Input
Amino acid sequence: MGIFERYLTLWVALCIAAGVVLGNAVPQIFATIATLEYAHVNLVVAVFIWIMIYPMMVQIDFSAIKEVGRQPKGLILTLVINWLIKPFSMALIGWVFFRVLFADWVDPHSAGEYIAGMILLGVAPCTAMVFVWSQLTKGDPNYTLVQVSVNDVVMIFAFAPLTAFLLGVTDIQVPWKTLLLSVELYVLLPLLAGVLTRHLLERRSSSSSDGMDVQALLQRLKPWSVLGLLATVILLFGFQAETIIAQPHTIGLIAIPLLLQTYGIFAIAYAAAWWLKLPHRIAAPACMIGTSNFFELAVAVAISLFGLHSGAALATVVGVLVEVPVMLSLVYFANKTQHWFVQN
Output
């Protein structure tokens, strides 16, 4: 395990702190960056996200999908959690907390935007960080590739309509063009770029002994992927720095339902994996995929739909704040309870 994975929480925490400090110290810089957008999509955020997720997309091997026939239950569990349970439970929890429990503390407009941000997190199942969680839980890397590959295919077609439906339920108008552009920019295009890169490298390495293989490229790209993640975190928290300082109680209010949702979904998925008698090497990554979020996409769409300084964008950024330490705690739990599962 590299130094990034080992001290992941520390690096992210430092970048969160740096973003908040810089955002309050030099807000004009972040205000200028915020203006660099096309069709409501911030170009600087797009570049950093691409730098981060492109190496992850190169790892995806669609030829591995045929391997699901050996253990289809793990894939089915992931799909059910991601697309039939998690989005709707997130919308419900958001509504209960911000329309009922926190109604006296949050104005209706802000409550609607916080719910929208939570929905965007719930409809964006994890892609990039899945490989980290899988590695930390000693998951089957090939099966994880299958899960991610199929999940990305479903996301391309399901993300926009499901998001539009759930946001519509909460009485929020959805600009379809912006939503579809975000899906194309942050999922479809990097996915196609990764698949094409992998195909070209595999063909070159098979025809020439001195050609660069996929793993060699990934080793070279890994530092850039890390820098992309850390830069994205700094930028996102820089955009929201003044709000975070001015409204710390708001961060807490958003974090409470997100924590409940995250641990609740993991409990459902982990219990289902145990009931299905999945091997731990498949069960653990399946539950991690179902529990964590593609927060890069959620943040990007929130910014695109509602603006950089909106409540929806803030909710997705709080999702980043909550996710890393929570997921690391779940990794620890999964590793400590691996004896509950079949080990073959």
